[in-house]
Design goal:
InterPro entries: DUF2851
Distance between the termini: 18 Å
Organism: Flavobacterium akiainvivens
Helix content: 40-55%
Radius of gyration: 29 Å
Number of strands: 8
Pfam family, one: DUF2851
Order of helices and strands: HEEEEHEEHHHHHHHHHHEEHHHHH
Number of helices: 17
Shape: elongated
Strand content: 5-15%
Protein name: DUF2851 domain-containing protein
Largest sheet: 6 strands, mixed
């Protein structure tokens, strides 16, 4: 058993409240369990109880055993001076204040319905993947759908936070913010941080000016990423080197170190050369990209915005000086979906919050039109009969797995609470 189960029992009064007594033999009445803080200090703030004939207002601390308070040194911590009651599953020692007086203790072990305890033990028992895996197939659709919406919005808020922080740091330059986070997404997990550093290290005004010429924007991005260092045979590479040197001189820019990009363990279509070229072509061909992203909500129109391909040189290359069979290197639909899921939707949400607009329903509708992400987490949910029909589902379930299941937060999860009720 974990303390979060006792928190749930106390918070929602899931115990027999008739004829309650403290271990000291005094009658106990719970008027209000207090506010569940989940912060440092006592577990519940501003509770109200009656012990004997005396009414008390203060904090309540929860432990599996009464001796746990000494394991955590609560007796010497001034944050616990205001504790008026210890609630425990088992009583194995008295709990004393600094002055030596005894703090009332309530034992819950014999006050909680055995069915509730049994359901919790089933939920908490060791499983092959997550605690509720065997119960997922039998859940009511109403519970799952409501919880999915909450999970999706939690994940959206988490993704929007760094976007809003960067907007604040850049003085509200939302075009520059979009450029940074799009670059990160173009780099995927491996090169995303490097691409982000490349773009963030450049004034967006320079990116905007140089994007009018496709070779200039590519030279700027490649040079900043360290891809133009060395001696090349191809005229294209040497031309980019010269352009980069001229751009740096023209705008009085200094070379800044950024994390080197990686080719290793990437499919060729995801090589940093290809993705940076596609990114540069996007900004060359979509001079009003910010407006299009903000104003466009139709999925086909969004796809049209990102329908770009790498510069002609890269049709026969993946690296400088190494020719390859000709192939059109355009953004695939699956890659566009990743851009929409991980950048466009969070960015639109963050910008709407900053400007006082409500577009949540619009974003939900857009996500429900996208295919779900294909990864091992979704494969597992499908295996245990949890429907994964679109990107809205997959994003909600990733939030569930990462923020609840991985940390065994069953008592804060609507699915876990539903299983307890059975």
């Amino acid at each position: 058993m974990k303390e979060d189960f006792l928190h749930h029992v106390w918070q929602f009064k899931k115990f027999n409240q008739l004829n309650l007594n403290t271990v000291q033999g005094e009658a106990l009445q719970v008027i209000h369990p207090g506010q569940y803080l989940q912060l440092a200090g006592p577990d519940f703030f501003n509770a109200q109880i009656i012990v004997g004939k005396q009414k008390w207002a203060g904090n309540v601390e929860i432990h599996l055993k009464s001796s746990d308070c000494y394991l955590h040194n609560h007796e010497t911590d001034p944050n616990y001076d205001s504790v008026i009651l210890y609630v425990v599953w088992e009583y194995d020692t008295e709990v004393l204040r600094k002055d030596g007086s005894e703090i009332p203790v309530l034992v819950l072990k014999n006050q909680v319905d055995s069915v509730l305890v049994a359901n919790y033990n089933v939920l908490a028992a060791a499983k092959t993947w997550i605690n509720c895996e065997k119960e997922l197939a039998g859940l009511e659709a109403f519970t799952v759908n409501n919880w999915k919406e909450r999970l999706f919005l939690e994940r959206l808020e988490r993704k929007a936070l760094p976007i809003m922080q960067l907007a604040n740091n850049l003085g509200g330059d939302w075009e520059a913010v979009l450029c940074c986070f799009l670059a990160k997404n173009f780099g995927l997990n491996t090169n995303g941080p490097s691409f982000f550093e490349v773009v963030k290290s450049l004034p967006f005004s320079v990116i905007r000016k140089e994007s009018f010429e496709p070779e200039n924007i590519e030279a700027l991005l490649f040079g900043r990423a360290g891809l133009l260092a060395g001696d090349f045979e191809d005229l294209y590479a040497r031309d980019l080197q010269q352009r980069y040197a001229y751009i740096m001189h023209k705008h009085r820019l200094e070379n800044e170190y950024v994390t080197p990009v990686e080719f290793f363990r990437h499919r060729p279509d995801n090589f940093p050369t290809i993705r940076l070229s596609q990114f540069g072509q996007l900004y060359h061909s979509r001079q009003n990209l910010f407006s299009k992203v903000i104003e466009t909500s139709d999925l086909k129109a969004v796809y049209d915005v990102f329908d770009v391909q790498a510069a002609p040189y890269w049709a026969t290359h993946y690296r400088f000086d190494k020719e390859s069979p000709k192939k059109r290197k355009a953004l695939s639909k699956s890659f566009m979906d990743l851009l929409i899921i991980n950048t466009i939707v969070p960015f639109k949400f963050a910008y709407a919050k900053a400007t006082g607009k409500e577009i949540t329903e619009e974003l939900l509708a857009l996500m429900q039109l996208l295919a779900p992400e294909n990864n091992t987490v979704m494969d597992k949910f499908k295996h245990f009969k949890m429907p994964v029909e679109n990107a809205y589902d997959s994003q909600a379930l990733l939030q569930l797995k990462n923020e609840y299941c991985n940390h065994k937060r069953c008592m804060q999860c609507a699915i876990g609470l539903e299983i307890l009720k059975r």
